[in-house]
Write a structure and sequence with these properties.
Length: 171
């Protein structure tokens, strides 16, 4: 029985194989080329947290820290559907981050932390608000200044920067 090489799928025309489209793969995650039946005879969509930006791939690549791929594409839009299909990882929006590879969604910055960059920036960690500033809600893109007569410590943890405390006498 005729088998297509990894990275190609059967077209139902005897002896004819077609490259897997971008956003899809067919093959093993490790090893060399083989004409064995791997993952069926059809190309498969990349799983969430992975992408394929070239045709004829045997495996999808993992999204790196600071990026994600929801994997919400279908075979029809894998090579250029909404937001590029499964052909690229997306950067986390402001107020969110990923601190691990192969993520299908971003985590939200906790109250007392922020992340403001967007578009082309890799968010791997949220920053703690600095002294004299606070962030009372999750997913903040900035820290607000404490009102007059109130303060947060320089340094400290995110919990120290959720609300401002009254200044001590002489502060």
């Amino acid at each position: 029985q005729f088998r297509c090489w990894e990275g190609f799928e059967d077209t139902n025309i005897v002896g004819h194989c077609e490259k897997c489209k971008t956003g899809q793969y067919r093959g093993r995650s490790v090893g060399g080329l083989s004409r064995v039946d791997v993952q069926g005879e059809s190309c498969s969509l990349c799983v969430p947290g992975t992408y394929a930006n070239q045709e004829a791939l045997m495996a999808c690549d993992e999204c790196q820290k600071g990026q994600y791929q929801p994997g919400s594409c279908t075979k029809d839009d894998a090579d250029g559907g909404p937001d590029g299909g499964c052909t690229a990882c997306k950067y986390c929006p402001p107020g969110q981050y990923t601190d691990e590879n192969k993520q299908s969604s971003c985590k939200t910055c906790d109250a007392g932390k922020f992340y403001s960059s967007s578009g082309g920036q890799t968010a791997t960690v949220c920053g703690v608000c600095s002294g004299g500033t606070f962030s009372k809600s999750a997913a903040s893109t900035t820290c607000d200044l404490c009102p007059a007569g109130y303060v947060t410590p320089t340094g400290g943890t995110a919990a120290d920067h959720v609300t401002c405390g009254a200044c001590s006498i002489g502060q």
